[in-house]
Hints:
It is a single chain. The chain is an alpha/beta fold. It has a single domain (9-243), classed as Aldolase class I (TIM Barrel, Alpha-Beta Barrel). Helices cover 39% and strands 15% of the residues. It contains 11 helices and 9 strands. The strands form 2 sheets. The protein has a 7-stranded parallel beta sheet. A two-stranded antiparallel sheet has the order 2-3. Helix 3 (55-69) packs parallel to helix 5 (93-103) and helix 9 (183-196) packs parallel to helix 10. It starts with 16 loop residues before the first strand and ends in a 5-residue tail after the last helix. The relative contact order is 0.12.
Amino acid sequence: MRIIYEPRGRALEYAPLAVSLYRGCSHGCRYCFVPASLRVTPEEFACDPRPRTDAIDRLTLDLHNLHVAGDTREVLMSFTTDPYQPCDEELKLTREAIKLFIKWIVPFTILTKAGLKSLRDLDLMAAHPDLCRYGTTLTLWDPEMERYWEPHAACVLERLEALQQFHAAGIRTWVSFEPVIDPEQTLELIRYCRDAGICDEYRIGKLNHSITPTRIDHADFLFQVRGELKGKQYIIKKDLLRAAGEAP
């Protein structure tokens, strides 16, 4: 394939296929693993996100081929960047990509920290709810901690508002509670989403590329997560299972 790829390692736990329309990410999250994997500094990675070369043309060919092959694996936008970079407001590559997924009847899912910016594509997704899902990452309630760890991402209230609007439009929603930085705040966020009825699937994973402010008892945290999500659809990532002393 030309731009769609099969993730490996931890990423494969979230989606069988993925695509990134942009290089770089303006959010500047301190726990991001991508700069190190690309051998660039976090500052270089965050300073000037740009579209990938011929992204839409390459995506068109890949989606055509998936359709012809009858390949119905879901494609995620995206692991290594956010589909709603500042330049997407002008370029609208994510909107063009969504139109192509719809045209070729290939299922897709969004993962974003851009909050209300993602609402500009709600109309397309709401018209095809059986073909798509919408996800956001939630890590922290505390505004000061949030600004430190995710300095340029949308605030948690914006992300929750966007999640609510997509869910209200009949689109299946999910939340990535990864990384867990402060277990109590993660549990509060899980309870909020559960009680508000705005999340259809919960995915929980540990912090792997930074040091948490305090030591985490992963076994106790996982016990509490399972209690809070009893009867709900959720996925515990393998690294968290191992940290809790459970064989994945």
